[in-house]
Amino acid sequence: MYPIALGFDEAINRIEALLNNGHDAEALVTSVFTLEKTMRRSLKIAILARGFSLKQSQRFTERKGFGELKEMWDLFDKDYRALPAFVGNEHWQHIPTAVEMRNKLVHGAKVYKLAECKLFAGHVLSALKKLRATVQTEYRRDPWQRITGKRTPRLQWLA
Hints:
Elements: H1 8-20, H2 24-49, H3 54-61, H4 66-76, H5 83-87, H6 89-92, H7 95-106, H8 114-139
C-alpha cells in the first residue's frame, strides 16, 4: 500500500495515525496490505539467498496473494521453516483472521465493528514489525530497502 521509498517507519506511523484518528477499518486494510507487501519482498530476499537471480525471484513472487506467499515460504527459507514458525506463533496466530477480515471488507461482503478492526490492525502491526526484524537478523537484508541481486543464478548445488 505504501511505497518502499516512504520507508518502514513512516508506513507504520501512517497506520498508527489511522488508528489514533478513528479510521480503524482503513488501518486494518492498510496494515494487511503492508504485511503482504513485506512478505513478498522478504520472500524475494529468501529466494535470492538460495542462489536464484533477481529476475527469477520476481517471477516466483509476482501476482501472488497472501496464501500463496505463505505456502511458498518454507520452500525458500534457509531452515525450511513455515512462515508462522519464522515469525513466531504469538505474532502470527491472528494474521489469518485479519487477512480474511480485510478481504471481506475490501469486497464489501461484511462490515466489522471498529473495535474489532482496531484490535486486529494492532496484531498485524506486531507481526509486521517482527517479520521485518527477523528478516533483517537472519538474512542481513531489509525488505524495506531496494532489493538487488545477481543477474545469473548461482544455485547452491552448482557452486
